[in-house]
Amino acid sequence: ALQQQERDIRLIKFNVDTGSADIVVTEQDVENYYKSNADKYMTPESVSVEYIELTSDELASSIDVDESRLAEMYDDYKRSALEKEERKARHILMQTGTSAENNKEALMPRIEELQQKLNDGESFEDLAAEYSDDPGSAKQGGDLGWVSMGEMVKPFEEALFSMNKGEVSGVVETQFGLHLIKLEDIRTPELQTLAEKRSEFEQELKQDAISSMFYDITENMAVTAYENPESLDAVVDAVNKQPEKTELFTRDSGTGVAGNQKFRTAAFSSSVIEQGLNSDIIEITPDHVAVLRLLEHQAASKKPLQEVRSDIENILRLKAAHEVTMAAAEEAKNQILSGAAVETVLADNQVVEGPDTVKRTAPGNVDPVVVGAAFQMPYPENEKPSIQVVNLISGDIALVLLDKVATPVEIANDQIKAVRQQLENDVANSDFEFALATLKDAAEIQRNTSLLQ
Question: Are the C-beta atoms of residues 313 and 30 closer than 8 Å to each other?
Fold first, then answer.
């Protein structure tokens, strides 16, 4: 019932006017605020560094492609494409068994008789439909559809892929029995020429070479920077790249490569700032690394008053205007509580907004702060509104007048069931957490520390 309660409210808004001539901010006010809030007006610590970076893309131009490897890759491609060749086949199966009627010797004359009928021009499809023991294909005239390498048992596959289009095989024996196979069609993937595949193969070869080369150079950078910590000169010689320099950047932000968090973390490490050493290798991405050293370090410092004066004045004016406006709202509230009519406390250009009926969980177009306050206010008594002053999200102030509270008399059964289910879930979860905590407290746990060695 409380959740579905509705409340009727009215509002009187008081605008906070920072431009009012009544608000005066003195030089002393500004200086006092500046001194008492010095930590808010600090220039953050910053550094600039020199660095050497390497990306895998830079190595591509230095790699020559081996023509013999290109030829090998093209041969592999052709073999792979041919393995994807498909053959459309039909078959007639004489299923063999262990009895005298269906062993190989008994069935061989029968399948040879079918073979002779085919030689005499009879339809393969008709004979398969009549005589084949394969329940899956007999009704379709022995049709097996398109077959790829690896889909059939070995003897069947070897026979099928050694035949010419339109040919009928001799008797083929498999674990299933005796077969006659007809090859109806061949479907081969279209082969691209070496010229067409060249770019793809070159990219693959270069990528393999780049990965290996990039790893080796990265390792060399790391070792060289560590063994020669006082300068990047040895790293320059090792990778044949000149260092670059950054502008000043902070722990939280930078531009270019300093926009990367890993780079900034390395730049502000104690070994770089305090000891003046080269950084460790920085993996900006798996294909982008860098090493850096300090050029300039600027400690955090207080901003000059002149630089922040305007901001402070605005803050103080807003604070003073808010205090003046709050006092006006409180005065209006006290007058209404003393018995004055609401309309009599309105200043120029002020109006009473509402009434609006609001719900606890559906504020509609009403400021959520107002709705929250309305449902914390005491019920109105003696036909007089309950009143509260609130700060609005906009920064202005409002006088909230609560005129009526309506609580539903009856609640639908499905809503009651939903609340009951939620409460049961809450209790069950609480019981479960308690039981789990109790088990943990009572358990004797043995740790096999040797596994952590």
Answer: yes
